[in-house]
Structure formats: structure tokens, C-alpha cells
């Protein structure tokens, strides 16, 4: 497969799934009524932040896929994607804030494991995940604070 075709496929897969999950999961009044900490960003921040992060995730995944399609970095990439896409329905769909906290902490662990595994083989892919790790760390603290407050 042409490497640029595979890049487009990674971008379409990651962005498409992220948009689909976001579009299918309505936050509604439930989220608006939750007590939130003072550091909660305004709602408009999440769309642009996740779009940029999904582009970085796709690029990192594509890079490790180009090098070794069945190695640990690719397996960790796939695992973190599954956890990433699981969090929204658990949190917003099922309203399970505590379970969502567990999911996001597992996601953060998978992200950090990907960075460590990719670091030896493709430092660019590892660097591409650093903003993602920072955002998910913040989101984990936010999820935990909302769980405690509610």
C-alpha cells in the first residue's frame, strides 16, 4: 500500500471514529447539571483540542505501523485507541463517572506505555504522543474532580 494512502486511512479512521463517537454521544442536561471544578475548560475547547490530538494520534500510529505492524508499539497504539473510544460512552452515555475514571487512567497508562515503547524505535511517534499524554492527564484530573464533587 502506498505510504500516503495509508496515512490518509489512519487520519480518516482516527478522526472519523472520534467524530462519530462524539456525535453519537449527547452530553445533554446531565453533564450541564454536574458540579464541576473551577478549572473546567469552556465546552468549546474540547472540539479543537481533540481534533488536533486525533491528528497527532493518527500520525504516530501511521509512523509505527510503517515500521512494524505487529510490534508492541502498534499493539499499544491499538489498545489506547480502544480505551479512548470507550471513555465517551461510559462517561456521557452511561453516566458512570467512576468507571470512566478507571477507563481514562488505563488510557493514560497505555499512552505512557506507547511513548516508552515507541521511544526506542521512533522518537517522532513518541513525541507526537506527548500532547496527548498531557491532555489525558488533565482530563483524568478533571474526571476525578467531577467524580468527587458528584
UniProtKB/TrEMBL annotation:
Biological process (GO), any one: tetrapyrrole metabolic process
Q: Which PROSITE patterns match?
A: PROKAR_LIPOPROTEIN
Q: Which UniProt keywords apply?
A: Membrane, Transmembrane, Transmembrane helix
Subcellular location, in the record's words?
Membrane
UniProt membrane topology term: Multi-pass membrane protein
* Signal sequence interval, chain numbering: none
Cellular component annotations (GO), alphabetically ordered: membrane
TM ranges are: 44-62, 74-92, 98-119, 126-149
Q: Would you identify the family this protein belongs to, as annotated? A: Belongs to the TspO/BZRP family.
Protein name as catalogued: TspO/MBR related protein
Query: Which organism does this sequence originate in?
Result: Aquabacter spiritensis
